Amino acid sequence: MKTHIIQLDSHDDVLSVRDKMAWSKAPRILLVWPQRGSVLKRQVDLFLLHRHARSLGAQLGLVTQDQDVRRIALEEGIPVFGSVVQAQNRSWRRPRRQRRRNWLNQRPRVVPTDLRTWRSSLRPKQMDYPFLRILSFVLGILAVFSLVAFFLPSAKVVLTPLQIEQKLDLPVWASPDLPSVNLSGGLPAFPVSVVVEGGEQSPSTGKTALPDRSATGEVVLSNLGVQPVEIPQGTVILGGAEGSNRYETTRQVIVPGGVGQTVTVPVRALLPGSQGNLDAGSTLAVEGLLGMVVLANNPEPIQGGEDRWSPSPAEQDYQKLEQTLENSLRSAAMEELLKSLTSDQLLVPGSLKLSKKMSETREPQPGQPGSEARLNLQAEFTAWYIRKADLSSLSQTALNVSLPAGFHPLPESLEFHFAEGSKIDAQGAIHWTTQVYRKAEADWSGGVAAQALVGYPSTEAVSRLMAMFSLAEPPEVYLFPSWWPRMPWVPFRIEVVKR
Question: Which parts pass through the membrane (predicted)?
Fold first, then answer.
């Protein structure tokens, strides 16, 4: 007969062996225990595997030297073999000892010798006194009705405890130097920073002069020697304070030989604009070696240089842009910080400040032409935050001082609101006022209420509850069955809940 052999590992359990057995299509499944290690030594393990094999329509056999496993297998009626070869050659019938034990456990059949005596012994005995039978029946009925009346009724009581609101203006202060919560209102603060950047632009309000036309005029050149001097076209003549203005001759001329001989030459400013205009009689000099043999002067002014005015950013424009941009970046930094904080972190009011300007770009610079002033700024802002748990602890302690007797607080109703305005003291701590709100509820107990209502009429139960607890409205009592006139007689049949 075909046999599916499964070699077990030391780490196998019931589930893994069941999975291996599920793949078997053979009528017999042989589980081979490992040489080392112990697996499936519980009786329940072999019982489950035996039952699983039967569900697969197969017969289960074991190959093991473990005496505990062999003993359990014999008790469960599973054939056990010493080796795989022995299992394939021997019969898989249930051991005779197991069959004999099952036969011994069967109850012997009793065959009565006298059928009449046996039939009479099976007939139920009748009571000698009918009155006792009726009394027992009535008492049984009464006992059943008593149990029903005692345990069947139930009630549900809905209470609406009175709630009050507590308000308090709590002065608090925060500082990074504070290690823990201070009962005087101090809270430890923790710094946090963020880097933001942005740009602003505005029309230029200033003006700047741009060179438009070059100045022109005539210069008289005087010879300092006896030889004629040739002055090429483009010779540079210096004029103005410290020779800041430069002019060039527009044609070639020759200064006649002889000391004091002169010639007039037209000149033009090298740079356009009004800066090239020069008054008559200004100090002039010829640039280079020619200046050693020729003198220059301008009996007539050099003029005609003109400028045109162009819009240009003024310093005030950038100051206004910087103020506007800082306010905009401050708002952006506030949004970024609020997003980065967790639900247990609260930003300290008035703690946000500009700590450092990372970069600043002005385009164009003041005095440069441009119709718009553009400012780009990257800045780091720093702020403080406090832990919400610290503020809650401080607020709860302050509110408990004014908590009325007979009421208990509802911590989940605690709310905060930071008042406008904060101050920084000499030590750098920030002071502000926190408006704290909390609800308090009148004390009540479902167990005490159930004990007090046992057996009372429903109408009286309402008045007793109103006298026992501070309620916002009369309690609601629901009885089951609805026609039942009284509260249940046992407390655990009364359910007291809060609206």
Answer: 131-152
Terminal CA-to-CA distance of the chain, rounded, Å? 73
* Closest of 475, 479, 499 to residue 489, by C-alpha: 479
Asked if the model's pLDDT at residue 148 lies above 80, the reply is no
Location of structure tokens 């010639």: 263
Beta strand 494-498 with 190-203 is unpaired
> In the numeric block, which tokens belong to residue 448?
């005490």
Tell whether omega for the bond before 491 is within 30 degrees of 0, i.e. cis. no
What is the C-alpha radius of gyration for the chain, rounded to an integer number of angstroms? 56
How many Å separate Cα 22 from the centre of its chain? 48
For the segment 428-438, the average pLDDT, to the nearest whole number, is 94
Neighbours of 203 (CB within 10 A): 11
Q: Residue 441: which of 395, 410, 400, 397 has the closest Cα?
A: 410
Q: Does position 433 have pLDDT exceeding 60, yes or no?
A: yes
- 115 or 241, higher pLDDT: 241
- pTM higher than 0.70 for the full model? no
Question: Whose structure tokens read 């009535």?
Answer: 138
Q: In b/e form, how buried is each residue of 32-56, taking b as 16+ CB within 10 angstroms? A: bbeeeeebbeeeebbebbbebbeeb
CATH class name, domain 3-104 = alpha beta
Closest-CA residue to 305 (of 208, 210, 207, 211): 211
Residue 108 clears pLDDT 60, i.e. is over it:
no
The 10 Å Cβ neighbour count of residue 121 is 9
Q: Is the pLDDT of residue 112 over 60?
A: no
Query: Rounded to an integer, what distance in angstroms lies between the CA atom of residue 150 and that of residue 156?
Result: 16
Those residues with Cβ within 8 angstroms of residue 194's Cβ, 6 or more apart along the chain or in another chain? 333, 336, 337, 340, 380, 381
Write the CA distances from 215 to 138, 263, 498, integer angstroms.
Answer: 140, 20, 99
Q: Which long-range contacts (CB under 8 A, 24 or more apart) does 413-420 make?
A: 413/437, 413/438, 413/439, 414/438, 416/346, 416/391, 418/349, 419/169
Domain-wise residue ranges, the chain: 3-104, 151-161+444-498, 190-205+313-385, 210-309
Please name the residue that has the structure tokens 């880097």. 195
Judged against a pLDDT cut of 50, whether residue 257 lies above it is answered with: yes
CA pair distance 327, 319, nearest whole angstrom: 13
| Residue whose pair of structure tokens reads 């190959």 in the numeric block | 63
Fold of 210-309: Elongation Factor Tu (Ef-tu); domain 3 (2.40.30)
- Banded pLDDT at 102 (limits 50, 70, 90): very low
What's the distance, CA 134 to chain centroid? 77
